[in-house]
User: Fold S-inosyl-L-homocysteine hydrolase from Methanosarcina vacuolata Z-761.
Amino acid sequence: MTEKELIESGNMKMDWARNHMPVLAIVRKKFEEEKPLKGMKVGMALHVEAKTAVLVETLAAGGAEVAITGCNPLSTQDDVSLALGTRKNICCFARYGVESQEYYEAIDRVLDIKPDITIDDGADLIFKLHTERTDLLPNILGGCEETTTGVHRLHAMEKEGALKMAVIAVNDAMTKYLFDNRYGTGQSAWDGINRTTNLLVAGKNVVVAGYGWCGRGVAMRASGLGANVIVTEVDPVRALEARMDGYRVMKMADAAKLGEIFVTTTGNRDILTAEHFKSMPDGAILANSGHFNVEIDMEALASLAKSTRTVRHNIKEYDIGGRRINVIAEGRLVNLAAGDGHPAEVMDMSFANQALCVRYIAENKLPNGVHKVPLELDTFVARMKLQSMGITIDELTTTQECYMSGWECGT
Ligand SMILES: NC(=O)c1ccc[n+]([C@@H]2O[C@H](COP(=O)([O-])OP(=O)(O)OC[C@H]3O[C@@H](n4cnc5c(N)ncnc54)[C@H](O)[C@@H]3O)[C@@H](O)[C@H]2O)c1
Ligand SMILES: N[C@@H](CCSC[C@H]1O[C@@H](n2cnc3c(=O)[nH]cnc32)[C@H](O)[C@@H]1O)C(=O)O
Assistant:
């Protein structure tokens, strides 16, 4: 495709996404009218694809100058990246398939604009700001973090007294994790796996590692597709929940022998290791929908392999002697590196939260540390989403409110 055709394609994807993101549209309209981000510079490292692009243009509509790069070397859609770069007050440095050096150079280029506010997905910008670019910290008003793992990293920094800025844990908004992590990952992980493999899920043993918000979604949709779902966990309560939701629960060492498709969603490393690869059935398919490329031990798999070959676009087969193991998208996020990411209607809520939190940071002086998304913003997003879906709900009467909050007439 020529550059012009790529830009057209990127614009078309953005139009489609924008038309399915009604809550973000409400926020954008307010931003256009009130320009709450006038004079602000926003630096972002997120998955550069169409829904993210709609967030970027929303921030620009609010008066911000925005620089963005990717947060995963395989999730950038180059057509969207180019289309974004044609917009006023927006620079985009993301490119698909970059090596590690170029990936981190692009993070530096985002920081070169001297952002007032950052938005991360996995805390890459914040990590750089606290290591090689500490000179920029005094300028920062605050940041937003999109994902569970990023929030974990920030809490770890805060605990050690290492966090020198305010960050809002956008992931922890109810209108984010309950929908994005669960229904978003549940649908988009299977979309990525199915469009890449073109194989049947019904009747297969599917192993889901981790029964957090992502794992619940992935297990639920696997079950809906007719799979026999096996869950692995380390948390006894979540393991029990998985059992009562109707799935088999066992150790990975046992699940590895049975699984035909494996999906990791733990946010942890070394979930599938050499010990497991050696006992997997011939032809097993591995996908990660959790964290970076560390959940599947790709190095161990490569060193076990007698040979490797690409067997289908985005699927690499590792022949480990007598059995072949297929890995989708190099063990990186399957929904983004082998698909288009979460559905637009879900990212609508995640990114409405992001835009509202960026405004909140611009308008309020927050102390250093990890902050919750203000409840009124979270509730606003839920209300606007219901409204956009044409759903109305009941309201408490005064008598009910009194009954629920008093103790005299509680029984
Ligand atoms: N693919 C996506 O688009 C997407 C969307 C949202 C979040 N994420 C990422 O997915 C990961 C999970 O997010 P979440 O919100 O579900 O987190 P979560 O904390 O709700 O769930 C993770 C679960 O994994 C379990 N776990 C940890 N180590 C384990 C191990 N060794 N074996 C088995 N289970 C283990 C934990 O006990 C927990 O229940 C994070 O890295 C997050 O950043 C990805
Ligand atoms: N950056 C890391 C961390 C996981 S990304 C997980 C986050 O991606 C976000 N996400 C999922 N789908 C999309 C999408 O289509 N566009 C932008 N972000 C997305 C989602 O909100 C989730 O919290 C990595 O690449 O491995």
